């Protein structure tokens, strides 16, 4: 009974602490944190590579993409370096596990020959998006996937993959026929459905990663005074753990959806 | 001001990212996937061949086991046969020895009986001689004191009959 009576008191105490702490984050501003955290002076202004508004690139996104690519390549080289048939290294085993897992997903949804065509692209998607997502939780870095340019780029690759595979296995006529099914006057709906695929794919990844970044910055912004213990620090630790989880999940979801979209386009008619 | 990038519009970054992805795909394909896939394939082949080898070895082992079992059974039967034969032979031998012993014993017994008979006859003959001598001595004594021929004959006859009825 004593414990039961103590519980509301504890809750009240916590609430008051939270109220007190939230006062400490008053001067908090995402932009300020974002600016302060820019340890390596990564430029935030766009680079112009040509005339007009279109021909400019988001410098930070590109720089972190290069970082992610370098990491991806380094890890791949490390995997291959000690690779052997008889005595696989730990990295190699992990990578093979990933490849076999993705291979299993592909083989579950489509024939083996079709799976061979998209297998390497799918592995690259998973591996690269995972590294991109994880770059975001390196302090001071930003995930390249937290920019909608990147995620739309990836989604367009998936979109192109769908059309290439569809036309390869069903012919151009066979592939575009599915817009008119089950009835020709469903064409607007099927077109919207088709357009929704890459858009949702891109925005899902983008939203998750952008949210992750914003939360990291917001929790960092809370780290002043008392909130260091009660707000920012503990919450940051928890949030970073969750970030790792989300990074894996989103990379997996993107890959999985790529596989299933392609599988849908190459599926045999019944 | 922190950022000057228009956040909603698409720009060349999109193209750059597509290009990056495709470049990475090509590079990884050359650098990482080819060797890894080759290794995976090799491992699969190795596993298959190892399994086949294992199956072969198992069949071989089974064959050897069957052979050994047959051999063992044969050996056991052989041993049993040898033991049986030896038992029978020994029994026969024992029988023969016993018969020989019996024969020997009976022969010895007969020999002993014959000997006894002979000894008795000899003793009887000796006794007869001695009785006769004694009778002659007695007779001489009697004659010295005047004995008739009739009396002498009677005396001898009596002595002899007495000797005959001796228990021996």
Please tag this protein with its features.
heterodimer, A: 270 residues, mainly alpha, two-stranded antiparallel ribbon, 74% helix, 1% strand, globular, B: 168 residues, 89% helix, rod-shaped
| C-alpha geometry of chain B | rod-shaped
Note poorly predicted spans of chain A. none
Order of helices and strands of chain A: HHEEHHHHHH
Kindly provide the radius of gyration of chain A, computed on alpha-carbon positions and rounded to a whole number of angstroms: 23 Å
Count of DSSP-assigned helices of chain B: 2
Report how far the terminal alpha carbons of chain A are from each other: 66 Å
Strand/helix succession of chain B: HH
Overall average residue pLDDT of chain A = 84
Q: What coarse outline of chain A follows from CA principal-axis ratios?
A: globular
Q: Helix- and strand-based class of chain A? A: mainly alpha
Q: Walk across the major sheet of chain A and give the strand order.
A: 1-2
Task: Report the oligomer.
Answer: heterodimer
Largest beta-sheet details of chain A: 2 strands, antiparallel
Please sum up the structure shown.
The complex is a heterodimer of chains A (270) and B (168). Helices cover 74% and strands 1% of the residues of chain A.
3D structure, described in words:
The complex is a heterodimer of chains A (270) and B (168). By secondary structure, chain A is an all-alpha fold. Chain A is built from eight helices and two strands, in the order ααββαααααα. In chain A, strands 1-2 form a two-stranded antiparallel sheet. The radius of gyration of chain A is 23 Å and the shape is globular. The model of chain A has no long low-confidence stretch (mean pLDDT 84). In chain B, helix 1 (12-144) runs antiparallel to helix 2 (149-164). The N and C termini of chain B lie far apart (164 Å). The mean pLDDT of chain B is 87. Chain A binds chain B through residues 31, 34-35, 44-46, 49-50, 53-58, 61-62, 65-66, 69, 72-73, 76-77, 79-80, 83-86, 88, 92, 95-96, 99-100, 120-121, 123-124, 127-128, 144, 147, 149-150, 152-154, 156-157, and chain B through 2-6, 9-18, 20-25, 27-29, 31-33, 35-36, 39-40, 42-43, 46.
